[in-house]
UniProtKB/TrEMBL annotation:
Residues 18-236 form the Alanine racemase N-terminal domain. It comes from Comamonas sediminis. It comes from the Bacteria. NCBIfam families: YggS family pyridoxal phosphate-dependent enzyme (TIGR00044). The keyword Nucleus does not apply. InterPro entries: Ala_racemase_N, PLP-binding_barrel, PyrdxlP_homeostasis. Keywords: Pyridoxal phosphate. The modification N6-(pyridoxal phosphate)lysine is found at K36. Belongs to the pyridoxal phosphate-binding protein YggS/PROSC family. Pyridoxal 5'-phosphate (PLP)-binding protein, which is involved in PLP homeostasis. This is Pyridoxal phosphate homeostasis protein. The keyword DNA-binding does not apply.
Length: 242
């Protein structure tokens, strides 16, 4: 059985190969290790292998992990970066604002306003991606592609937030061509916002797109951050998740 360290190296090689296949530099795509439902020991193993960016879906569970690493001398200055990649209920915005470094799932102005108001002044601005529902699933989170620009212009006015880009979780499709087509639509949304030329978008540089099954298509479409969980940590036991 491969160790977490070995799996990280395998995923990084996949990213490098995907970049090479479409003529992109390998350092242009960041690996976000999705550590939801896994404990601090697994995260520590990944961190020891050089991984620094971790994605979490369940807010309360994540805060406990963030506090653990913040309070341990061996880790507090190691530059671990915590990304919220799950839905945010109104009663959880304060926890997110106070503990996370990034949020990928902003799709309403109300959520952004709460995050901005609740972000402690002594912390760096919260890095924000707008979640785009690129393929129109009615049960999915995210703003429709044609509504992204309006939301961006509203969120851009909020203090304590720094807009960075877009995130999307397209429905699973069976073949590479279909994956690439839907991912290219996400890239088109990103490009259309960049073209607005808003001064608040000086750091508009992130496309959070692609997971284990569609990593190659996401990289070819222009993803700058791929989210990999089971490919690093193994299969999840959702019985202990909330």
């Amino acid at each position: 059985m491969s160790t977490i360290s070995e799996k990280i190296q395998q995923v990084r090689l996949q990213i490098d190969n995907a970049c090479q296949a479409c003529g992109r530099p390998g350092n242009g795509v960041q690996l976000l290790a999705v550590s939801k439902t896994f404990g601090v020991d697994a995260i520590a193993q990944a961190a020891e292998a050089g991984q620094r960016a971790f994605g979490e879906n369940y807010i309360q569970e994540a805060v406990e992990k963030i506090r653990y690493f913040a309070e341990h001398d061996a880790w507090k200055d190691q530059g671990l970066v915590w990304h919220c990649i799950g839905p945010i209920q109104s009663n959880k915005t304060r926890l997110v604002a106070e503990h996370f470094d990034w949020v990928h799932t902003v799709d309403r102005l109300k959520t952004a306003e709460r995050l901005s108001a609740q972000r402690p002044a002594q912390l760096a601005p919260l890095q924000v991606c707008i979640q785009v529902n690129v393929d129109g699933g009615i049960t999915k989170s995210g703003v429709a592609p044609d509504e992204v620009a309006a939301l961006v212009q509203q969120v851009a006015q909020l203090p304590q937030l720094q807009l960075r880009g877009v995130m999307s979780i397209p429905d699973v499709v069976p073949d590479f061509a279909a994956q690439l087509a839907v991912h290219q639509r996400v890239k088109a949304v990103f490009d259309s916002i960049a073209a607005l030329g808003l001064p608040q978008l000086a750091q508009w540089d992130t496309i959070s797109l692609g997971m284990t099954a569609d990593l190659q298509a996401a990289v070819q479409a222009g993803s700058t951050m791929v989210r990999v969980g089971s490919g690093i940590f193994g299969q999840r036991d959702y019985g202990s998740a909330h």
